[in-house]
Amino acid sequence: MDNEEVKMDYTKLNQAGYAPSQATYDMGLRDYMVAIYKYMAFALILTGVVAFTVSTSEAMMQAIFGSPLVWVVMLAPVGIAFFLSASFQRLSLQAVQTTFWVYAATIGLSLSSIFMMYTGTSIARVFFITASVFGAMSIYGYTTKKDLTNFGSFLIMGLIGVIIASVVNIFLKSSMMEFMLSLIGLFIFIGLTAYDVQKIKHTYYAVGGSGEIASKVAIYGALNLYMDFINIFIHLLRFMGDRRE
């Protein structure tokens, strides 16, 4: 169901006297968004705890990054994300929640390496900068009256292009190309934050904001925002992080 269909359905229900008032929807939407940001915040905390804990254990770091297990750690989040997308409809709410937490934990495993590469102070500084940028774009996506659908589609196509170019650059090993791709990627995920927030609002009206389906969709929305935050953080860290000597 696209945005126009949602708007039309809501208008018809209102005219028939069956739809909740706008005030009811606004209160429900705020609660819905708060729940999504709570999921996202707890996922970030879980990721940070896992990353820091693993980074403080020389044995765990050696087991992960000193063996072929590193490929499992790096590729596992991709597999989990695809699994969640493909199985979203048939999974129970509890299964969706569990998959979400497992995804956040595996991201923590892969991010543990940043504590070897960057100073703790710069990691904290970049995290708070990321939070500020993410917060600003979230507010924009929530409050803007402009339809960001076409803008989001453009960004997604750009992201696909960046991924393909990054794979090519593995063989070219061009530092300039890597720099440009990181810069483009940063702006793509900043833009996607606003797009995803607006999409979550439209989805809320489509699913009614309550029930198991709405709860599952909320987790999926939290996953999208979580990925936006993590990617902004990683890209900013490449530009602003202080490397260890």
From TrEMBL:
Pfam family, one: Bax1-I
Superkingdom, taxonomy of origin: Bacteria
Principal location class: membrane
Single GO cellular component term: plasma membrane
Membrane topology: Multi-pass membrane protein
Coiled-coil ranges per UniProt: none
The family this protein is said to belong to: Belongs to the BI1 family.
Cellular localization per UniProt: Membrane
Keywords, alphabetical: Membrane, Transmembrane, Transmembrane helix
TM ranges: 36-57, 69-88, 100-119, 126-142, 154-172, 179-197, 217-237
CDD domains: BI-1-like_bacterial
Record has Nucleus as a keyword: no
Protein name as catalogued: Inner membrane protein YbhL
